[in-house]
Design a protein that fits this description.
Layout: H1 3-19, E1 24-32, E2 35-43, E3 46-55, H2 69-85, E4 93-102, E5 109-113
Parallel strand pairs: 3-4
Antiparallel strand pairs: 1-2, 2-3, 4-5
């Protein structure tokens, strides 16, 4: 299976995990010139932008560590464009979350880091 197919499979797992916890998914794999956001939706009173990271093992580091400052900045710019495109003003609270999935099917460890980072301009 290629990397894109594997990524899509684990994004699907992340969506199911989030939905079971009251997350309403608005869009998946939003792409624009600024970048890409894996999952966009609503949880509690927030518009939430979610980055999903997967690793088979932690030997290469924890999956959430792959969301670097540069990646965070790209997610924020993409989120700003999404809000502009959909007419979502500044009055809507925004949150940036990271879903970390580590391990294979039988021993999967899923962590949902709410408010994983602040907006970067």
């Amino acid at each position: 299976m290629n990397k894109r197919a594997v990524g899509k499979e684990y994004e699907e797992k992340a969506c199911r995990y989030l939905e079971k916890r009251g997350f309403l998914i608005a869009e998946r794999n939003f792409r624009c010139r600024q970048g890409e956001i894996d999952i966009i939706g609503y949880h509690e009173e927030y518009l939430v932008f979610v980055e999903v990271k997967y690793r088979t093992t932690k030997y290469a580091g924890h999956p959430a560590e792959a969301v670097t400052k540069q990646k965070q900045k790209r997610i924020c710019r993409t989120g700003d464009y999404y809000r502009y495109k959909h007419g979502i003003g500044d009055q809507r609270a925004v949150r940036y979350d990271v879903m970390s999935i580590c391990g294979m099917e039988n021993g999967m460890d899923i962590c949902w880091y709410k408010n994983a980072f602040w907006h970067i301009f």
